[in-house]
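User: Please predict the structure of the protein below. I'd like the answer in structure-token form so I can feed it into my own downstream comparison script.

Assistant: Understood. Taking the following sequence of 189 residues as input:
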Amino acid sequence: MLYIQDKVAKLGGVILGGQVSSVEVQEAATIHTAQDDKGKVKKTQPVGYDNVKVMIDIILEDGPEGSTLDQLINMQRLFKAEGQEQAILFPIVNEDCAARGITEVYFKSFSSKKIISESKRIASLELWAPKIAGITVIKKTDDTAKETVTAVKNKSKKSKAKSPAKDTRSTADGKKSARRIVRKGIQEW
């Protein structure tokens, strides 16, 4: 779980050393741009959304939690533990993320920068939401029953019964005559 409040970050049940200096949440749509042979833009069309990205910067300084290197080692163990082969999904608790419907994130990248003149380090965490959160709308019907409709729509399914390509002929008679021909020979047919 990632918990951020009052400049303190908690990830996977471990309080991260240092102070959270910034939390940035980025969300973007994917737009396809159609161009002609000369490079002139003919049309733009939305095709979906990118994953939501959460960037957190933490200032690490020597203190009671340990040195800046100790704090980096603790964060590195959370990012990729020994023997871990895939990113782990962590629950996230943050008011900016909650406002956008983000409840879980993957630990995408981890970087650190040493500022020599100030004897401190800055650790940067990049987290990605696994999917875009759909906005849920609750409609009341006359029966006071509730229906939930999500913003993500499923692809419509075609009825095979209405397909013009569907073969409605019965092939049983044809199969019988073919078997009879094979058994008795073509002359008797």
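That's the full token string. The longest helix spans residues 172-184.
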